[in-house]
């Protein structure tokens, strides 16, 4: 029988630094909740709002798979490997921090905020050579279906990471239902509502609510509002 863990939007960690307004689904920075350290290999799900012209200066990471999903605006990335890129809605960015990487992230525009999700997933290999990648996806391909944006396979749809994890985004008409079949036995799914409302395995979820589901081989998703959007993060439950 499936086990579920409900994280309501208003129970997330929150910090408003003026230039950065951020919500944490899991313990991060000054937010600590012993019940929200991670969900399997999923370590961080941050919901960030970055003011015009502002951003994160150069800072280090290692041994983490870091995925950035822009929702609005233009985010400029620079890193110690010499990569420079701008990502916007429809783009997916990934960094395998591996043995160590330094990077900065800035709102490229002075007058328009950037909204983004940043996700950290524990890798299944340590001390790999750091790598960076970004791709542009057709957001129309997620209308009434789940568009794959991350997988473990370099030749599969989306970007790839060093973990048996799959990420999908779907945008649905009201009352549209679909089933997500897990890719690997022993994995769990963290469902996160980007916009609108959903019924996920009988649990009502509203905007920015999260639901962790373990011990299931599939989950049923029904949109309760028009243009509702959901992010599914399938990860191993054992580290």
Tell me the layout of helices and strands.
Layout: E1 3-7, E2 13-16, E3 20-24, E4 42-50, E5 55-61, E6 65-72, E7 74-79, E8 84-88, E9 91-96, E10 101-107, E11 114-121, E12 131-136, E13 146-151, E14 159-160, E15 166-172, E16 177-181, E17 187-195, E18 198-200, E19 203-205, E20 210-214, E21 218-223, E22 228-236
Parallel strand pairs: 13-14
Antiparallel strand pairs: 1-20, 2-3, 3-4, 4-11, 5-10, 6-9, 6-11, 7-8, 7-10, 9-12, 13-15, 15-22, 16-21, 17-20, 17-22, 18-19, 18-21
Task: Give a structural overview.
- It contains no helices and 22 strands.
- It has two domains: 12-136, Jelly Rolls (Sandwich); 139-236, Jelly Rolls.
- It starts with a strand and ends with a strand.
- Helix content is 0%, strand content 55%.
- It has strands spanning 3-7, 13-16, 20-24, 42-50, 55-61, 65-72, 74-79, 84-88, 91-96, 101-107, 114-121, 131-136, 146-151, 159-160, 166-172, 177-181, 187-195, 198-200, 203-205, 210-214, 218-223, 228-236.
- The strands form four sheets. The chain has a seven-stranded mixed sheet, with no helix packed on it. A seven-stranded antiparallel sheet has the order 2-3-4-11-6-9-12, with no helix packed on it. A four-stranded antiparallel sheet has the order 5-10-7-8, with no helix packed on it.
- The model has no long low-confidence stretch (mean pLDDT 96).
- It is globular and about 45 Å long.
- β18 (198-200) and β19 (203-205) form a beta hairpin.
- With 239 residues, the protein is mostly beta strands.
């Amino acid at each position: 029988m499936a086990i579920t863990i409900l994280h309501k939007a208003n129970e997330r960690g929150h910090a408003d630094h003026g230039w950065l307004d951020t919500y944490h689904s899991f313990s991060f920075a000054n937010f600590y909740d012993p019940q929200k350290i991670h969900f399997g290999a999923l370590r961080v799900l941050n919901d960030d709002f970055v003011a015009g012209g502002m951003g994160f200066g150069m800072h280090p990471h290692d041994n983490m798979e870091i995925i950035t999903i822009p929702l609005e605006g233009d985010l400029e990335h620079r890193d110690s490997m010499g990569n420079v890129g701008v990502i916007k809605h429809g783009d997916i960015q990934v960094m395998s921090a591996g043995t160590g990487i330094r990077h900065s992230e800035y709102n490229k525009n002075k007058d328009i905020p950037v909204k983004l999700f940043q996700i950290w997933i524990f890798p299944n290999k340590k001390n790999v050579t750091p790598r960076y990648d970004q791709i542009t996806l057709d957001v129309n391909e997620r209308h009434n279906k789940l568009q794959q944006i991350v997988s473990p396979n370099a030749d599969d749809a989306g970007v790839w990471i060093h973990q048996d994890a799959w990420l999908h985004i779907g945008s649905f008409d009201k009352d549209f239902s679909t089933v997500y079949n897990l890719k690997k036995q022993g994995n769990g799914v963290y469902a996160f509502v980007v916009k609108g409302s959903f019924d996920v395995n009988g649990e009502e979820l509203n905007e920015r609510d999260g639901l962790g589901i373990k011990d299931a081989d599939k989950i049923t998703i029904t949109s309760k509002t028009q243009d509702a959007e959901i992010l599914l993060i399938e990860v191993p439950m054992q580290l």
